[in-house]
Design goal:
With 409 residues, the protein is α/β, with parallel strands linked by helices. Helix content is 32%, strand content 24%. It is built from eleven helices and 15 strands. The chain has an eight-stranded mixed β-sheet, sandwiched between helices. Strands 11-12-13 form a three-stranded antiparallel β-sheet, with no helix packed on it.
């Protein structure tokens, strides 16, 4: 994969060692994010893992960790509550601040979303907050305890089955979540907020998203996760959520210069590990995917290699024509270029030079230039002539040398 995932540990609120994963970009880091998982979940839940990996491909390093007593972390879950979750989150913030950089992004899923909402307003470095299926009240989790609440109140604790697993819940947990007024924290948070919620979420109803949105100050955004379930178990839903988060964050986390190193002078293409052909492309500060269509075994998440060649020719053509029109003072409307690629037999190539004869099949790029508005025949002919002088056009038509070597380990 293009991400580099490091296994980490740090001390939680009680001194118990908390297990963590840091998903790092294979290149400059634009920002650090902290991910808080849902109630009784772990850092390795599919939604957390995929969102961490997808954001890392976009240059955002993501720290996800297990709260005390959950997943691979030490400690007793029965002794924890919402307040200790907030304390663990602060420990994670301090760990990032000490060893990397304080998080500028907080992401919380379900009860983890409630936790980041409660904490965000107290952290000056935080520039953006994202919640996924978050409740508007931390006490919402008590509804999942059902009839066990009576036993907890009567006996001081009870074993509760949640998501097929047994957890011991103490009375102090119930009392603690009831003391937190989450919406009051949202009203004074004053951070850009993205609320993501599924209308059909049966665990945390969509009305919770409405309450959070109304309590928050602008800038705030809401994105529906459509038919997703609460845990985003469908990879397509997780991929959608990650892409929306990455796009939304671009307004709030773009630094003056890439962090960690200078912008790359070359283009890097690296397999992601997703599907057979998906590759992450980094060109300067820009990141995108290269892939193949589903019809040939790809995931269709980005242009194919030959699509990129067509993009290069089309973009170079449009830019060259615009430079020419501006230099000559020509009133030329908006330019668009359609490029298609095919491998054709020589006998089908009417315009091919004598040098290409006898080569059997060749690559043919067909280019159609459109200009908004009326232009004279003279300008039309001149644009065709100038298009042939575009640097990429010339590169494709003349021979090129490709040097290849294996990098030293």
């Amino acid at each position: 994969m293009t991400t580099i995932t490091e296994k980490l540990e740090f001390d939680g609120h009680s001194g118990a060692r908390l297990a963590a994963r840091l998903d790092l970009p294979n290149g400059p880091v634009r920002a650090y994010a902290l991910f808080a998982h849902c109630f009784t979940c772990s850092k390795d839940i599919e939604a957390a893992r995929r969102i961490g990996a997808d954001l890392a491909r976009e240059g955002v390093a993501v720290l996800r960790f297990d709260f005390t007593g959950l997943g691979a972390s030490e400690g007793e879950f029965a002794s924890t509550n919402f307040s200790t979750n907030l304390a663990d989150l602060l420990c994670a913030v301090e760990f990032l601040r000490a060893h990397y950089e304080a998080p500028s992004v907080l992401i919380g899923h379900s009860l983890g979303g409630a936790a980041v909402l409660a904490l965000a307003g107290t952290l000056a470095e935080v520039r953006a907050v994202i919640t996924i299926g978050a409740p508007a009240d931390a006490a919402h989790v008590l509804g999942k305890l059902g009839g066990s609440l009576d036993a907890i109140s009567r006996d001081g604790s009870a074993d509760v089955t949640l998501a097929g697993r047994s957890f011991r819940i103490d009375r102090q947990f119930v009392e603690d979540v009831q003391e937190h007024s989450l919406l009051d924290a949202v009203k004074v948070m004053r951070k850009p907020l993205l609320i993501m919620h599924a209308p059909l979420d049966e665990v945390v109803g969509i009305d919770n998203a409405t309450k959070i949105f109304l309590a928050a100050r602008h800038p705030k955004s809401f994105v529906s996760l459509d038919k997703s379930d609460h845990l985003l178990t469908d990879p397509a839903d997780t991929a959608f959520a990650a892409s929306v988060i990455a796009g939304w964050l671009s307004r709030y986390i773009v630094p003056d210069e890439p962090q960690g190193s200078e912008a790359m002078e070359h283009v890097r293409v690296m397999e992601t590990g997703e599907g057979r052909f998906q590759n992450a492309v980094q060109a300067g500060r820009h990141r995108l995917f290269a892939d193949e269509p589903e019809s040939v075994g790809g995931l269709d998440t980005g242009p194919s290699p030959y699509d990129f060649l067509s993009i290069a020719l089309g973009a170079c053509t449009a830019m060259t024509l615009r430079m020419y029109a501006d230099r000559k003072g020509l009133a030329v409307g908006r330019i668009s270029v359609d490029v298609s690629h095919a491998k054709v037999h020589m006998e089908d190539c009417i315009d091919c030079s004598d040098e290409l004869k006898g080569k059997g099949r060749i690559d043919r790029f067909s280019r159609v230039i459109s200009v908004e508005g009326e232009i004279s025949d003279e300008i039309r002919d001149k644009l065709v002539d100038i298009a042939g002088k575009c640097p990429v056009h010339r590169t494709l038509e003349r021979s090129s040398q490709v040097q290849t070597r294996i990098a030293e380990q």
